[in-house]
Amino acid sequence: MQILKDILTNVVANLIFWLGLGLIVGLTVRFGQRKFQKFFGLGINQYLTVCLSNLWSSEISRRPRGYAVALHELRASEAITRLFGSASFRLPDMVRGLVDTVWTGSRGYEFQTAVSPATTEDPRKFEHLASNLIVIGAAARNSVRRLYLDSNTISMKLSNELPEARFHQLPKDQLAVHILVGENAGAQITSTYELAILEKILDHQRNTMVFFCAGMRGDTTWATTEYLVRSWRGLLQEFGNDPFALCLGFRPQDYRYDYSEPIRMHTCRRGA
After folding, report:
1. 211: closest CA among 220, 159, 221, 121?
2. What is the pTM of this model?
């Protein structure tokens, strides 16, 4: 009889423990989801699209329309997919699988990847403009970034995005990030580091959140996206849900495929 009572006591204790753990995990997931979704604009718009640059050109193809994507931007897209495909906060490994199941099973948003219209097409006809966006790549090949750049809603731009640059890489001594707003408007940031821009804006016209990840080179564009994936918690803590723009400097020369933390060259804060 005592053995049966001990077994029953252990069963009840384990049941209470797992129910309690489930409640704690559930509350933690919900809290994490709210912060995550609000930071990426998913609290007001449940759609998010990663917008890649389009390298296709009608000058080198007989087709009236086409798509070509850079390898580094595909890797950047994979990083974003990794972020949105699992629970985006730290928990013990023993409950990670459960949390991922709850996170992905009840996330309440739609995530996809698309390619921007070709540079010869009208970006205003891009079918995903009503979605929250993570725009990857500079304006020379990403017509959606060019659309926002032309509408004067961006705080910084790369020298490679100047009209005279077109599709060509400028000489090393001419590479810079140009500040477009604030008390430092008109200033240029130069460095021996590889420069890149991470910016978050609120598109008031479409009521969406738009992120821009753009580097002087393909590898720094990927690295900027990777920085967003790894550092969104810190950015949320620093800026809340307000727009911001960062000029980042990545290790020069042989950067390629290994990630290292950038240094922050300049910060622009903008009210919502």
Report:
1. 221
2. 0.79
- The 10s digit of each residue's pLDDT in 122-145 is 999 999 999 999 999 999 899 999
For residue 110, which of 24, 34, 210, 37 has the smallest C-alpha distance?
37
Nearest partner of 52 among 34, 79, 19, judged by Cα: 79
Answer whether 188's CB lies under 8 Å from 266's CB. Answer: no
Domain extent, residue 34, equals 2-269
- Neighbouring CB atoms inside 10 A of 145's CB total 30
Ranked by mean pLDDT, which of 88-92, 131-135, 152-156, 251-255 comes out on top? 131-135
Residue 78 CA to residue 74 CA, distance in Å, equals: 6
Q: State how many domains the chain has.
A: 1
**171, 151 in Cβ contact below 8 A?**
no
First to last CA, the chain: 68
pLDDT in tens, 88-113: 444 444 334 444 444 444 556 788 99
